[in-house]
Structures are given as C-alpha cells and as structure tokens.
C-alpha cells in the first residue's frame, strides 16, 4: 500500500539520490584533478571535497522536500526562520566563516603552495617566511629563526604577498644540518 501510494515520489527520490551521487563523483574528481594539477596537498583536497559533499547533501534534502510536496511558501518560511537564527548565532563567529571561505578561495586561486618562501607586506607586522601548511583557517608560516606563525586565511587575501623562492623548504631544512 505504501509503495503504491508514494510510487511517483519514490521514483523521484531515486532520481535525486542518483543525481546526488553522480554530481558528487564528478565534482570530487574535478576538485582532485585541479588540486593535483596545482600541487595542493591531499589534506586540503579532502577538506574541499567534504565542503562540496555537505553542500550537495543540503541541496538534495531541499529537492526531497519538494518531491514530497512541500510548497515554496512553506520552504521560504522555514529558511527565513532558520537563517535568522543562524545569522544571529554566527555573527559572533563571522571570522571563522570568513577564514573557511578564504580557504576555499585559496584552494582554487592561491598562487603559492607549501614550501614556497613568501613575504607578506603588512605595515604593522611584515613577515618573510616559508609556507609549511595551508589549512582551512590559517597558513602555518616558518620564520627564518625557526618560529612558527599562524596567519589567518582571510588576512592573506587582503595583503600584498611576494613570492621570494619556490619550494624554499628544502633550503630551510638544509640550513638546519
């Protein structure tokens, strides 16, 4: 009885799930291809893949709500309420979201990679260091004196940066010997 009553919705659900997996597979393959071509480390590639998967799950859930007959006005009411609560809650953590967004932008368009020596032109705190890691929230930079500096992703996109040496980490490691 259940299957007869909801036969159309179940077929549409199967189509949504199939499309979800196809789009997820294709997007992850594309992200991995871009990441490998750009010389980005596997941890960052996996992180961006997770972000895309979560986004696709939300889109699939919204599609499922429409499959089972949710009206657009009901969805609008739900989303406006949810986004109002989320907006208020996330106002306190806007910098975290800004850093995550910057991390995603940096994945696709950051011209520097792990091992490069860069100079950040900041009038208050100029930095000349080697990039050790590019995380979701910040860069790990190793200064010439060996100190580790974490630099927020959103700030690195706002400052002028000069590439001093490509793959300078090998030079830094040889200096330790």
Summarize the structure.
The chain has helices at residues 2-5, 7-38, 42-67, 72-91, 94-109, 153-156, 169-176, and strands spanning 117-121, 127-134, 138-143, 148-152, 160-165. With 177 residues, the chain is α+β, with helices and mostly antiparallel strands. A 5-stranded antiparallel beta sheet has the order 4-3-2-1-5.
In N-to-C order, the SSE pattern is HHHHHEEEEHEH
Indicate how many domains the architecture comprises.
Answer: 2
Find the structural class using helix and strand composition: alpha+beta
Low-confidence stretches: none
Beta content comes to 15-25%
Largest sheet: 5 strands, antiparallel
Cα-to-Cα separation, first versus last residue: 75 Å
Strand order of the largest sheet: 4-3-2-1-5
C-alpha Rg, in Å? Answer: 22 Å
User: How large is the count of helical segments?
Assistant: 7
Average of per-residue pLDDT values:
85
Label the overall shape.
Answer: elongated
Number of strands: 5
Structure description:
The protein is α+β, with helices and mostly antiparallel strands. It folds into two domains: 2-70; 108-176, Roll (SH3 type barrels). Helix content is 62%, strand content 17%. It is built from seven helices and five strands; from the N terminus they run αααααββββαβα. Helix 2 (7-38) packs antiparallel against helix 3 (42-67). The protein starts with a helix and ends with a helix. The model has no long low-confidence stretch (mean pLDDT 85).
């Amino acid at each position: 009885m259940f299957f007869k009553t909801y036969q159309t919705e179940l077929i549409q659900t199967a189509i949504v799930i199939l499309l979800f997996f196809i789009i997820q597979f294709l997007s992850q393959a594309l992200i991995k291809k871009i990441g490998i071509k750009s010389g980005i480390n596997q941890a960052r590639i996996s992180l961006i893949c997770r972000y895309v998967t979560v986004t696709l799950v939300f889109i699939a859930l919204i599609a499922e709500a429409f499959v089972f007959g949710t009206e657009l006005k009901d969805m609008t009411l739900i989303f406006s309420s949810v986004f109002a609560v989320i907006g208020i809650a996330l106002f306190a953590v806007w910098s975290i979201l800004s850093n995550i967004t910057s991390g995603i932008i940096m994945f696709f368009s950051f011209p520097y990679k792990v091992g490069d020596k860069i100079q950040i032109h900041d009038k208050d705190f100029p930095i000349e260091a080697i990039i050790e890691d590019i995380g979701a929230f910040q860069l790990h930079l190793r200064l010439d004196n060996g100190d580790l500096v974490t630099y927020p992703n959103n700030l690195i996109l706002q400052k002028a940066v000069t590439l001093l040496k490509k793959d300078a980490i090998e030079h830094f490691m040889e200096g330790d010997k």
